[in-house]
Amino acid sequence: MEDLKKAIEEILADDIVKIVISNKIKKDFEYNKINISLKETKNKSFYQVEKFTDKQVFH
Description:
The protein is of the alpha+beta class. It has one domain (16-58). Helices cover 19% and strands 39% of the residues. It has a four-stranded antiparallel beta sheet with strand order 1-2-3-4, with no helix packed on it. A hairpin with a 4-residue loop joins strand 3 and strand 4. The radius of gyration is 13 Å and the shape is flat.
């Protein structure tokens, strides 16, 4: 898990607009796909995480 966190931190050091994590290996994992998108408002930029299950999307 630490390796994953380190890899994500290195990736986010660049100007990333969108990250998609899909094609799960373990079928018992709750989410089918995870999207991480850059959102911008007038005052700030932030990343929004969307987690997809079979029937729902969580923001």
